[in-house]
Amino acid sequence: xxxxxxxxxxxxxxxxxxxxxxxxxxxxxxxxxxxxxxLASQLPFFPDVTLxxxxxxxxxxxxxxxxxxHEIDKSELLKSVKLSLSLAIGLAIATMAAVGFALHAVWPAxxxxxxxxxxxALGPTDAVAVSSLGREAALTQRQTSVLKGESLFNDAxxxxxxxxxxxxVFEVGESAAxxxxxxxxxxxxxxxxGTMADLLFESLRSLGWETTTSRILMELFLPFILYLxxxxxxxxxxxxxxxxxxxx
Length: 248
Description:
Layout: H1 2-23, H2 29-40, H3 53-71, H4 74-79, H5 81-106, H6 112-122, H7 127-134, H8 141-153, H9 159-167, H10 172-206, H11 212-232, H12 237-247
Helix pairs in contact: 1-2, 3-11, 3-12, 5-6, 5-8, 6-9, 7-8, 9-10, 10-11, 10-12, 11-12
């Protein structure tokens, strides 16, 4: 019950931030949400409970990224896909290496594996944050498309650092293999399930069985099914959600 109360508090803070942002347009909405979260955590009735990272990923991140991928301008994304992928993979891995080796050199007490994991966490940008901040900054259409595309695909670049943190040893060959399997495996899984979902949606519509309620519920369930299914076969759940969102 405490976890459910925490989730309700988070949703309430997000709803409140949407109203507050109208009165302080110069302050980015994500910053307002961070401030509300810090404030809410100090309230006496705020539930004292730890939210599982896995639950947070499937409950919040998966549907948000599915929506972002679903609504992104596909034609603009295709124009900048090479640049987006180079940023999502190359720049994120370069950031991971730079932060990891620099931190380990300055503070040797931190293991290299943990330092690389921190670099992996700092490297990728967030798709939802790019969408929100893009409305505040004077970005061109191409810049926005590149950043949105990059933020959708950069999840896999953090897997190398995460694998290093879990194993405690940075093995280039093993980490690279895990990277490739998780990245492409997640994308293929998402495309396959997305294609099946598309066929199901079209079949129900052609037979006249589709209603507004059934369509909304199927769209609502899809990102959760995608994420959990991909994680069950040990590929990237985030990339499967993104791939399916782009396809459907």
